[in-house]
Amino acid sequence: MPRIIIGRQSEASDLKRLKEAESELAKLKRMYSNLAPENRALKDLIEKKL
């Protein structure tokens, strides 16, 4: 069920939560971009050994 936004306080709260979510998403994207090449290299190594 969608929330009903009432007044500036709710808008400010929603904006704060949105910014926090965007920050968390950026952090997770950086983590993924750091781990994905290592994961691929390990998979390639395993395939070569089998």
Order of helices and strands: H
Question: Termini distance?
Answer: 51 Å
Query: What share of residues is helical?
Result: over 70%
Q: What is the global morphology?
A: rod-shaped
Number of separate helices: 1
Radius of gyration: 20 Å
Q: Show unreliable segments.
A: none
What does this molecule look like?
This protein is an all-alpha fold and 50 residues long. It has one domain. It contains 1 helix and no strands. The mean pLDDT is 88.
What features would you highlight for this structure?
rod-shaped; single chain; 50 residues; mainly alpha
Question: Any chance you could write out the topology, listing elements then pairs?
Answer:
Layout: H1 7-49
Brief summary:
With 50 residues, this protein is mainly α. The protein is 86% helix and 0% strand.
